[in-house]
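Page 47, continued from p. 46.
Same chain as before, 361 aa.
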Amino acid sequence: MAFEATKREWGELYAFFRLLADGYVYAGTPEAKRNESLRYPVAMVQREEHDGTRRYIIEDEEIHICGENMDKRIPREDFDAVAHLVLEAVKNSRENDVTSPDGVEEFLDEVAIYDLESKTDDRTDFHVAFYHVDTPLVGFCVRSKMSPMFPLLDGGRSANFKFEQTGVKFASPTVSKINAFGEEDDVLGRMLMIERLGGVLKFNDAADKIFRSNLGLIDLHFPRVLGEMARAMHLEGITKVSELTEYIKVLNPLKIKDEMITKHRFYEYKMKQFLMALALGMRPAKLFNGTDSAVAGMLMVDGQGEMICYQKADRDTFADFLYHNTRFEKGSTNKDKYGYLERENGVYYFKLNVKIGLLKR
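Result:
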């Protein structure tokens, strides 16, 4: 009997099967292309299943599956065939829920895979041993452009920034009129209305104290940089992180010397530090002390099923990739509680939210 799963679930399974079938993965470039001169041989993939940890050891013609309740060998070509079936099903479906192709469910039963998404608490999808089964494992998360991707930063209201409303003191009816303006997600409309009525939105701080402290590890003034980027996303319509950083270099909200901006590339450096921290473990509402999480790399699958990998071992390439392939996104104003004037201790604040995701193209 066929079953349905989301494209994201199928994407993780596809990446897993593709690694086992190929026995290698190419490194990625900063431009999200395959680095033809750098191919990593895969010796083993470790994955969490319903009955515990499984090790999938890649041999010449077979995959040796070892677990608490399992010890068997499956031809590698079977993994290749099923990966191809999954890829075609996902590519050809216009819906997010995709029905399992003929033969896939039977294969999953044979290899005793019942969770399409690995069940872990450390945010990894699986671990990979390169070169030899005894080399240190690298924890990977999978991102597939064939499905909606988890954002790098999706902190909800914990990732809000406060702007103090100054310039003119608004009466309560005026505040109500501003907050009632436009559709629910018309944040720009309300910002422009405040401006037309003589108000000024002055950056205040990150709304959440834990997120504020986490950002302080990047730089004590980094909350202002992110907040001004969020403002520019709405007012200027710029979303790509690299382009927003160029905008910030001109705006120079920290009022640092030109030499720091041009020669030391201060703003690019800080943004790359931040993106790497997000990729390797930082969360807005969880205390971050600079220690990386179990995630040590990212597997990227493009719209045609080609897969490349980034690892913190090659930190510069990983950071450049994130810098050039991420964007600011708009979260739900209702869910994330931003985009309205709110009174706090007699002062009105306007909150903006920061959400950062990977580019789909």
